């Protein structure tokens, strides 16, 4: 298991999560109710299920707060501080990156690369701190499906609480969703849309089975006294949507007349992520750093990580402490925190100063990819693509 740097956040930090994947005591919350639309099931269609009061049809009730851990957290160990080693690039590597950059530009002359005289190289150590919190959240909703003989178990025994139901979690830091039918909540009800008839009035003809003939516009005649041949002079034609019956199969119960109603548990595993990029004085635009990766200096993955200690740039340590505190306060209220991971990358930025034709110039080499930025390249020409 990877270790973290020294911290003082107490026994809930820097420990393996002992509760991951194990059932926890039931805890339920009653989300605020919404008004149902005209086609939605009426509220009295659903039974009262202890532990699921306030569950809505179609969701929207918010996430259920997680229970307290079922076992006490073990006391953390105090790991040693890592040895922070800051690498730098060589002069030859900087020249190679510059040459590759210029050769990729059709309007750039290679003369500054060949004839430019390097005067000095300045290294700017820019760090990117990232905190990721892997969470599990749960919400419930009433659902329905046409009844075709499925098991009916409501009332046979108490339904398990939302956090007592076992769900198969993915590997850490892999986002996933899972929907589970809550046991002992399924019952059969008459379809609310067709009132148990299995058919509903055709929406195309309003249940009449016919509609005004589009050829004669309902007159029964065409030009002059000629009888309309399309409707045979009736002025109306059979509805093609319902074949003249005036009704169609109910879209809710699919003609079965009854619905199986039950509670669905929606489980969501998410990665909540925040980055902090330390300020630097290189002059390179910060948005350029989003295009590149850095050299990983530090990685720590625990149930709850320690804030970084002893890092050369104090702003990184301060960001680590602040973000860990914010994640705990923000996500622990609505989700179960399963794992945290923090990394520190060094994004190498080297400002290379050189002279060409007696004038000073410079370019940047940055990132693991050795990308080059030379906005003021001194030997460009105008060209057009024919």
Q: Can you offer a commentary on this structure?
A:
With 386 residues, this protein is mainly beta. The protein has a domain at 1-137 and 269-386. Helices cover 9% and strands 29% of the residues. The protein has helices spanning 91-103, 111-115, 314-331, and strands at residues 117-146, 176-181, 187-190, 199-201, 210-212, 236-238, 247-249, 258-277, 295-302, 336-356, 359-366, 371-373. The strands form three sheets. Strands 1, 2, 3, 8, 9, 10, 11 and 12 form an eight-stranded antiparallel β-sheet that branches. A two-stranded antiparallel ribbon has the order 4-7. A hairpin with a 4-residue loop joins strand 11 (359-366) and strand 12 (371-373). It is flat, with a radius of gyration of 34 Å. It starts with 90 loop residues before the first helix and ends in a 13-residue tail after the last strand. 27% of the residues are buried. Residues 1-13, 23-38 and 74-79 have low confidence and may be disordered.
| Biggest pleated sheet | 8 strands, antiparallel
Radius of gyration: 34 Å
Number of helices: 3
The total of beta strands comes to 12
Helices and strands in order:
Blueprint: H1 91-103, H2 111-115, E1 117-146, E2 176-181, E3 187-190, E4 199-201, E5 210-212, E6 236-238, E7 247-249, E8 258-277, E9 295-302, H3 314-331, E10 336-356, E11 359-366, E12 371-373
Antiparallel strand pairs: 1-8, 1-10, 2-8, 3-8, 4-7, 5-6, 9-10, 10-11, 11-12
């Amino acid at each position: 298991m990877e270790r973290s740097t020294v911290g003082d956040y107490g026994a809930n930090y820097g420990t393996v999560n002992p509760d991951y994947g194990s059932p926890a005591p039931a805890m339920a919350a009653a989300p605020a109710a919404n008004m149902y639309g005209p086609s939605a099931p009426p509220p009295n269609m659903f039974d009262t299920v202890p532990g699921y009061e306030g569950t809505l049809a179609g969701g929207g009730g918010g996430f259920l707060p997680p229970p307290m851990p079922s076992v006490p957290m073990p006391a953390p160990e105090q790991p040693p501080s890592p040895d922070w080693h800051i690498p730098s690039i060589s002069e030859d590597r900087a020249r190679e990156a510059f040459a590759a950059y210029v050769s990729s530009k059709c309007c750039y002359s290679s003369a500054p690369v060949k004839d430019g005289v390097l005067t000095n190289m300045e290294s700017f150590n820019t760090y990117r701190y990232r905190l990721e919190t892997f969470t599990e959240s749960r919400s419930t909703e009433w659902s329905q499906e046409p009844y075709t003989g499925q098991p009916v178990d409501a009332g046979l025994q108490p339904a398990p609480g939302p956090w007592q139901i076992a769900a198969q979690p993915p590997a850490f830091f892999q986002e996933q969703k899972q929907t589970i039918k809550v046991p002992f909540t399924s019952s059969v009800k008459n379809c609310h849309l067709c009132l148990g008839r299995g058919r509903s009035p055709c929406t195309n003809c309003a249940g009449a089975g016919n509609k005004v003939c589009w050829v004669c516009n309902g007159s029964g005649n065409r030009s002059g006294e000629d009888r309309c041949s399309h409707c045979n002079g009736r002025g109306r034609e059979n509805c093609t949507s319902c074949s003249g019956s005036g009704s169609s199969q109910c879209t809710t119960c699919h003609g079965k007349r009854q619905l199986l109603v039950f509670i669905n548990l929606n489980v969501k595993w998410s990665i909540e992520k925040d980055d902090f990029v330390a300020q630097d004085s290189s002059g390179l635009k910060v948005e350029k750093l989003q295009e590149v990766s850095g050299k990983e200096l530090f990685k720590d993955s625990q149930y709850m990580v320690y804030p970084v200690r002893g890092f050369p740039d104090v702003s990184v340590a301060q960001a680590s402490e602040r973000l860990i505190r914010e994640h705990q306060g923000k996500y622990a209220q609505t989700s179960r925190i399963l794992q945290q991971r923090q990394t520190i990358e060094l994004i190498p930025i080297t400002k290379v100063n050189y002279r060409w034709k007696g004038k000073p110039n410079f370019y940047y080499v940055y990132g693991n990819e050795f990308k080059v930025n030379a906005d003021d390249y001194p030997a460009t020409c105008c060209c057009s693509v024919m």
